[in-house]
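hiii, so i know i said id send this last week but things got crazy w the move. better late than never?? heres the sequnce for the chain we talked about at the cafe, plus the structure i predicted for it. fair warning i was half asleep when i ran it
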Amino acid sequence: MTAVIDELLHVVQLEQIEDNIFRGESRDIGTPRVFGGQVLAQSLLAATRTVDSIRKPHSMHAYFLRAGDVSAPIVYEVDRSREGRSFTTRRVVAIQHGRPIFTMASSFQVPEEGMEHQMPAPDVPDPDSLGPTSPLSAEILAEIPVKLRRWFLQAGPFEFRSVQAFNPLNPGVHEPARQVWFRCRGKLPDDMDLHQVLLAYASDFQLVGTASLPHDVSFLSGKLMLASLDHAMWFHRPCRVDDWLLYACDSPSASGGRGLARGSIYNRDGVLVASTAQEGVMRKLQ
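okay and structure toks below
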């Protein structure tokens, strides 16, 4: 796993090519397009590189405009929109082949004390009691479209342990909610900015697919078009992504060829560290 972790850390090390302009490389995870979480992470890192170290990100709101080309670098242009006493705002545009593929606005805040409350974490089994999620069998892999098969054959930098069992080729009808434990497979540096960037990376896993759970269809069957349109994230408290985190996702609505999903990310102590929301195109294919 060392090589996989090193590759992940390399992806979130941007090259500065001009004031407010950065260039990032892509990590091939086996999909035909750039993974959305990668662009989320790199755009947040680009914005962070233009803000003083005292201020920390508390929110980001992004739109996916075009599919990214995994074989080409991505250029990130940062606009320093606002420098406030407590809050700082940045806008980032990700560009490939001369066209924007992604836009993001993020806000940073000087840390301060204030009133606190949170929704409690769901009562789910501990990740150690679940054991590693079993890889797909050779029989199931043989039925998955070839262009998606490579995604399952690659060992990624994150480990997932799902609370609910799910067969992607026989999905059935389920409540639009699920919980998944996840963590980075290796020890990471003690850099909280890095952990927030990687949390943004991992937040794109599992989320919008929750909207398909009530509809007896999976994108692995080749009968569902599922593509992210936007992604919002709020950072509440610091966390480490190399320790177990619980991603509790639900989908309050699907309509108009779109599905909406929300996520709450808790640490093992039940502390809410981040919240997410994502809408995606969701169409059944003939």
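btw DSSP finds six helices and 13 strands in the chain. thought thatd interest u
miss u guys!!
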